[in-house]
Structures are given as structure tokens and as C-alpha cells.
Fold:
Amino acid sequence: MMQTILEPARRLNVRQSCDVLVAGGGTAGVAAALAAARNGAKTILIEQLPLPSGTMANGGIVANSFYSTYTPICPVPKRIVRGIAKEIEDRVIEAGGSPGGIAIDPTTSHYRRPYLFINDPEMYKAVIGQMLLEAGVTVYLHTFLSDVLKDDQGKPYGVIIESKSGREAILATCFVDCTGDGDLAAHAGAQTKLFYQEYNVKPLASIGKMFGIGNVDLERFVPFAQQRGMITQAIRGKNFAGEDAYVRVVVNFLLDPVCEKFAQQMGFRSVTFFSIHKDTVDFVNGIGRQNVNILNLDEFSAIELDMQRIACEFVRYVRQNFPGFEHAFVKSTANQIGVRASRVVVTDFVPSIEQITASTRFDDEIGVYGHSDYMPVDPQSVMRNQGLYGLPYRMLLPVGLDRVFVAGRMVSTNLRSHMSTRNTVGCMVQGQAAGTAAALVAKNGYTSRQLPYALLRSALEAGGVYFEPRS
Ligand SMILES: Cc1cc2nc3c(=O)[nH]c(=O)nc-3n(C[C@H](O)[C@H](O)[C@H](O)COP(=O)(O)OP(=O)(O)OC[C@H]3O[C@@H](n4cnc5c(N)ncnc54)[C@H](O)[C@@H]3O)c2cc1C
Structure:
């Protein structure tokens, strides 16, 4: 049994009070904080890492991460996500951080998407930082949420944060948990489920390590790997240098008897190279581990150390074995391993995969979405009909809690549905709605469940959210 001690009570500084406290400045949290502030709420965003962005850029995936503002091919691709997701796209392009969407033939795309939106992670971080400042959000970085303060009835009224300034309190009327791991909701008393085991299914692991490789010539590598039968996808487009180049190359190591041994030793099968800058693989996706519980400190620490080793061994292997990689080096590694799922929060409603694929619409929807990561491997997850579905407001409300909202990858207790809702653009739609709702609840004194839908809807529409007309 773990030894325990009694922590002595102590008086804490109250750093600030606010209307809306957003925990976690990741994919969903940035959208939530922007939306809350733009709807008139005094908003504080706390983030444990040095910069906001979350799995998008700190996790290293941003180069090809906008899955997806468009529907897949059913019946024709069309843009269905606007609002803050679209605004971020536009701002990143305007800042020179993206050459824009690369049109691809959706019939050859794994996910049947018509565009890849590729962008530069460092520019992305700079752009969202500016957007948060412009909106008037108070951003506390290097700040970890460690507990929730509750009154005698168990209602949250503040959070405890830890930073270089010490242990302090922030008081708030509403709370939006965008920590990805449900930290705030769990401390507030939400029902939660440890979800990482659900990802012990092919093709995904519960965590993934992203890294970039410099000094690469894909023009020489791809024909070589094609000859060996290892390439399952090679998409060309314009890179940042304006050149026609390979931007997305999927390499299945198991299809080559020599590489297979290395891949099995390292515990991966297929990797995707994303290349947006000349002579660079900006990030490698596909190297990860199954069954990792990052809520366990021993496991989390051990996996970070191990994945850094594996990233470096991978680059050494390709340097020694593949033409085009002879002078390659590890250009970057993500600030932290990427987590697909850890703890998810039980909310009032979770759309089922049948509702998702059948284009189900809801009376309380906060936007529409149409991507599923399971489409290439799971016939049950292929989007049908219009290729979009409604995201209901109820999915943001943790069962039994008031004035606490959740958004992002910690929402959805069903694996097949999670494979849709956890994707970046889905997280942004949820984040924008959670921040908007929290601001309206705080401003008007409603409970989360009393918030009139018409009010929420018109605020979301004013924020640019697209609502596909219902037939
Ligand atoms: C390896 C990998 C590849 C992926 N590839 C794609 C892809 O190509 N396209 C796509 O659309 N999706 C992809 N995804 C999924 C998608 O990126 C994530 O599901 C999504 O970004 C999660 O957003 P989020 O806001 O829920 O969490 P995150 O973006 O992870 O944000 C959570 C934030 O909360 C902070 N935080 C956590 N706990 C605390 C705390 N206690 N106190 C303060 N701050 C805290 C974190 O530092 C982080 O910034 C991928 C995921 C992984 C892991």
C-alpha cells in the first residue's frame, strides 16, 4: 500500500477571479478560451507547457493535422467546419505559415478527404498566441492545475494551480476542462473512465511519439521503397518552397522482409512521413505504444524516455538503410508524447457510431463534423449519407456537474465515436461551443442545463459556426 501523509492546511493567494476558467491550452482549449473571451467573459487559460497548442503543435502533429473541415466524399466533399477552426487556418495562411489546402483525389485518400491542410507548427503556435492576446484572454503558461476547490455542496468555485509563483488559487464561475485527460473534471467529481485500453486495437496505439527528420531526399527514397513494395500512399503537392514534392508518404515496414525485423523490434508497422519544407520530413507518425496509462507517473516518465530513444534509433536506421536519408538527422521531437486517449469523462450524451455515420442531427447541436479516423479500416465507421453529423451540446456536460464543461479528446466513452470526435477539428468545434456556453452561463446566471439553446445557437452563429440546414 502507498504510504500517505497528511498535508497541513495552509492559506493560499488568490491570484485572480474570472467568469470562465479554461484548463489546458491545447486544440480544444484555445478555441474555448477564444470563444469565452469573445462572448464577453473574463477568461483565464492555464497551460502546463511553455506555449499553447497541445497535441496540435507541442505534440508535433500540426503539419497535417486539420482532420477535417471538409466532409469525405459523400456525396461531394464540402466545407462544413468554419468558426474558430477556419479562422485559425486563415490566420496561419496569412502569416505565411501554410501554403493552404492541398487538393488531393479523395478516392485515393485513406480518409476520403479532398484536401490536406498543412502548416508549420512554430507559426501555428505564434498565431494562436496572438489570437488569444487579441481576444483579451489572460494566459498563464508553465501552470499546472492540481485541484478543484468545492463548496459545502460539492460545487466547484475555483482551482488550485502550481507554478514558479507557488501554489495559488483562481476563482471562477464556470470551468471548461480541455486538459485532454479530464484532470479538472475528475477533481470536480465527474464520472470518468480509463480509456487508454480501448486503443489496444490495430491500427492505433494509445500514445505516439512525433519527430522530424532533416536532410532528406524523398525523391530518391520513394522510388526505392516503391520497388521494395513498401509504399502504400505517396501524395504530391506544393511544399513551402513552392515546389512540387512528396508531402505525405506512407511506408509499411512490414511489407519488406529486411525492414520488418527492425519494425517488429521497435514495435511499429507503418509510418507516415509528412513533408512541408524542402529536404525535410517535418514529422513522422506511427511510432508509438499500446496500453500506456499516462496517468501513472512511473509509466508516463518511462515512456517519454523510451520513445525519445526509439525516435533516434529510427533515424539512425533510415540513415544507414535508405537512399535519400544518408545525411539525415533528428531535427525535432515533440515536447511531449502524443496521447490518443487516457481518461474520458462520462457526459449526458455520447453519439453512437450509427448516429455518426447515418448523419444524425440533434435539436441541441453545436456544429457539425464529418471525419472518422476509423474509416480506412472499419466498414462500420464509413460516413454515409451527407458525410456529416451533428455534435450535441449534451456531450459537453459531465453527468451530475453544473457549470463544468468538457471538450476535446476526453469526450466520448465509445471507441468508434471517439475515433471521430477526438480529431483536431472536432475538438475545435467542441471547444468553441464549450467556451461560448460557459460565457453565456456565467453572464446570465443560468445553470449549464438551463442555458436556452436559441441563445447558444445565435452566439455560435455570430462566432462563424456553420450549421448545415436540416432536411
Ligand atoms: C500521435 C498522434 C497523431 C495524431 N494525428 C492526428 C492528425 O493527423 N489529425 C488529427 O486531426 N488528429 C490527430 N490526432 C488527434 C488529435 O491531435 C488530438 O486528439 C487533439 O489534438 C486533442 O485535443 P485536446 O484539446 O483534447 O487535447 P490536447 O491538444 O492534448 O490539449 C490538452 C492540453 O492540456 C494541457 N494540460 C493537460 N493537463 C493539464 C493540467 N493538469 N494543467 C494544465 N494544463 C494541462 C496539455 O499540456 C495540453 O496543452 C493525433 C493524436 C496523436 C496522439
Remarks:
- The first strand starts at residue 13 and ends at 23.
- Residues 102 and 116 are 5 Å apart (CA to CA).
- The two ends are 59 Å apart (CA to CA).
